[in-house]
Design goal:
This protein is an all-alpha fold and about 260 residues long. It contains eleven helices and no strands. Helix 1 runs antiparallel to helix 5 and helix 6 runs antiparallel to helix 7. About 35% of the residues are buried.
C-alpha cells in the first residue's frame, strides 16, 4: 500500500507544478484551482480502484470511484468556465499585490501545500474504498449526502451567477436564495460532500477500525474553509470592497451553516 500512497502523493505534487506553469503562462491563478480539482479526482479514482488483492475491484471500490469522479468533474468544470470568462480570482489577485516580486516563488510553494492538502483528503477515499463490508441499503445514505451536496453547490453557484449577471446588482451583495441563509453556501455544500466518505468507511460493528480515519477529510476541510483559505480571505476582500453593507450582511446571515436570517435590528 505504501508504494501506492507515495506514487499518488508524488503525482499530486507534479500536477500542482504543472498548475504553476499554467499560471505563469496565463497570468491567471484561477486555473490552479481547476488543476487541483481534477488532480484530486484522479487521485481518488486511483486510490479507489487499485485492487487490494489480485482480481477485480469490488462494488464498493466502483461506487467510491464514481462519487469522487462526479465531484471532480462538476467542480473542475465549473471553475474552468468561471476562470475562462472572468478576471483573476480576488484571493490570488490580492496575493499578487502582497507578495510583489516574490509572487512566483511563493506561489510555487503555496501550490505544493495544496498538493499536500489533496493528498491528505484522498486518504479518506482510500479508506472508504477498502471497507470490506459488502454494499447494502445503508450505503444509499452517503450517496444521498453527496447528491445533496453537489446539487446544493450547483444551485448556489447558479444563484450567484444570475445575481452578478444583472447590471443593477453591480455594487450589491447577493442575499437571495441560499445566499440569504449562509454567506458561503457553496463552501458549506463542499464540506458536506466530504461526509460521504466516512459514512462509506465506518463499520459500526467494529470490523474495520481504519474506517474512522475517513473523518479526517471533513474535519480538515472544515478547518480549511472556515479558518484558512476559504472564508477569511474572501470576507476580507468583501469588507474592503463593500464595507458597511457587508458588515450588515455579516450580522444578519450565518457564516457557514444555512440558517434562517436574523431580522435587522
Amino acid at each position: 500500500m505504501w508504494p501506492l500512497i507515495v506514487g499518488v502523493t508524488v503525482g499530486l505534487a507534479a500536477a500542482m507544478t504543472v498548475a504553476w506553469l499554467i499560471e505563469r503562462r496565463t497570468s491567471n491563478a484561477g486555473w490552479v484551482d481547476v488543476v487541483w480539482s481534477f488532480a484530486l479526482g484522479a487521485a481518488g479514482v486511483v486510490y479507489a480502484m487499485w485492487p487490494l488483492h489480485q482480481g477485480m475491484p469490488t462494488d464498493r471500490q466502483f461506487l467510491v470511484a464514481a462519487l469522487i469522479a462526479v465531484w471532480s468533474l462538476r467542480l473542475g468544470t465549473h471553475i474552468a468556465r468561471r476562470t475562462a470568462r472572468a478576471a483573476e480570482d480576488s484571493r490570488y489577485a490580492q496575493f499578487r499585490r502582497e507578495w510583489g516580486d516574490a509572487f512566483q516563488r511563493r506561489m510555487f510553494w503555496f501550490l505544493q501545500i495544496q498538493a499536500a492538502v489533496a493528498s491528505s483528503l484522498a486518504v479518506s477515499i482510500l479508506v472508504a474504498a477498502r471497507n470490506p463490508r459488502p454494499l447494502s441499503g445503508y450505503d444509499l445514505v452517503p450517496v444521498a449526502v453527496l447528491v445533496v451536496a453537489l446539487a446544493g453547490e450547483a444551485i448556489a453557484d447558479r444563484q450567484l451567477r444570475a445575481f452578478r449577471a444583472d447590471p443593477a446588482n453591480r455594487s450589491r451583495i447577493c442575499d437571495r436564495g441560499l445566499w440569504g441563509w449562509s454567506r458561503h453556501p457553496n463552501y458549506f455544500f463542499e464540506w458536506l460532500g466530504w461526509l460521504a466518505y466516512p459514512l462509506l468507511a465506518i463499520d459500526l460493528l467494529g470490523n474495520y477500525p481504519w474506517g474512522w480515519l475517513a473523518f479526517s477529510a471533513p474535519a480538515f476541510m472544515y478547518w480549511l474553509l472556515l479558518h484558512v483559505s476559504g472564508v477569511p480571505p474572501l470576507e476580507q476582500q468583501m469588507l474592503r470592497s463593500r464595507g458597511e453593507a457587508f458588515r450588515e450582511y455579516q450580522a444578519r446571515v450565518s457564516v457557514f451553516l444555512p440558517l434562517p436570517p436574523a431580522r435587522p435590528s
